[in-house]
Fold this protein.
Amino acid sequence: MTPLETALAFVAAINNAGPAALRALMTEDHTFTDALAHSFSGAETMHTGWQHFFHAYPNYRITLTQTFADGNKVALFGSAEGGWRVDDKILPQKWSVPAAWLAEIRSGKVRRWTVFCDTGWATPPKS
């Protein structure tokens, strides 16, 4: 796969809420950096992290409107949306935010995945 194809496969795995597929696309030394600049390293750490994320934010989905590839780096632009789970109950409200992602690809896997967006959505509404 090209770097762009690898990044798009990663997005497809996210949209399918597939931690196992994401894990298969990560290098062992994978690093995820969230929109608050917190970084998490290691494919196993992020496999667990994605499981928790998909549970906390059900129906999380990325929609892409533009992509650019330059060598092993891929920039993705669009939006992210989803919902919230509070006290193990999925809230009816939804959120959506413009977002961008930067992926660094190595040997057909995602070495680094960085998210850029406003994080105001992360706090669920009062029920």
Q: What stands out?
A: Residues 4 and 66 are 12 Å apart (CA to CA). The beta strands are 26-33, 39-41, 61-70, 73-86, 89-106, 109-117. DSSP finds three helices and six strands in the chain. The longest strand covers residues 89-106.
